[in-house]
Design brief:
This protein has helices at about 20-30, 45-50, 80-90, 105-110, 125-135, 165-170; strands at about 35-40, 60-65, 90-95, 115-120, 145-155, 175-180, 185-194. It has about 190 residues and is of the alpha/beta class. The protein has a single domain, classed as Rossmann fold (3-Layer(aba) Sandwich), CATH 3.40.50. The chain has a 7-stranded mixed beta sheet with strand order 3-2-1-4-5-7-6, sandwiched between helices. Helix 2 (about 45-50) runs parallel beside helix 3. The longest helix has 14 residues, at about 20-30.
């Protein structure tokens, strides 16, 4: 089993393999992005790390479905917690709850684009990740923006995770990186440069 990334100071942990996510954080710190977009927040584990690992003054934009993972389909996570993290690190945050494929969600993110760093970890179906990339990957800053996509490796335990199929198509003809855990036969993070 591959170890999960752990930050002893974080209020919530990202659901990421340590080797993969550490490499992505190294790239992220080198970039020092001023505008960050995350699609698929969950409890905010990666969101916290984006805030922690860039200089104060960044604009963080996040989109996710409301309440699905929190047990009550009508309850939104407490955004005040995420706002407190942003204040702690000196950032501005804007959150939209809804389907990332809705036009309203895309319009919301578009108001804050272009982004230096985009992290896609929402709809894992082939059509879903393709749609998210077309909508949000194109909001990455031309000439240096980075788009990272989670779960690029096939997952035999879940047939709905089809990101790998899209990843293989996407990386043809682009400058890309892959972060995998070596022992892992699933997950993985792919990065493309815009």
């Amino acid at each position: 089993m591959t170890d999960l990334y752990r930050d002893p100071d974080a209020p919530v942990q990202p659901d990421q393999f340590a080797a993969e996510f550490s490499e992505l954080l190294n790239l992220y710190e080198e970039l020092q992005p001023r505008r960050v977009l995350e699609i698929g927040i969950r409890e905010g584990g990666t969101l916290y790390q984006w805030m922690k690992h860039t200089r104060p003054g960044a604009l963080i934009v996040a989109i996710d479905l409301p309440g699905v993972r929190w047990g009550n389909p009508h309850k939104y996570p407490d955004v005040k917690i995420w706002q407190a993290w942003a204040a702690e690190f000196g950032h501005e945050i804007h959150v939209y709850f809804g389907n990332s494929q809705w036009q309203e969600a895309q319009f919301f993110a578009g108001k804050y684009s272009p982004f230096d760093f985009v992290f896609l970890d929402a709809d894992h179906t082939y059509e879903g990740v393709k749609s998210d990339f077309k909508a949000y990957g194109l909001m990455a800053r031309a000439g240096g923006g980075v788009v990272a996509i989670h779960d690029i490796l096939p997952d035999d335990t879940d047939e709905l995770i089809q990101v790998g199929r899209f990843w293989e198509e996407l990386k043809a003809g682009l400058t890309w990186l892959e972060y995998t855990s070596g022992q892992a036969e699933r997950r993985g993070i792919g990065v493309v440069y815009v």
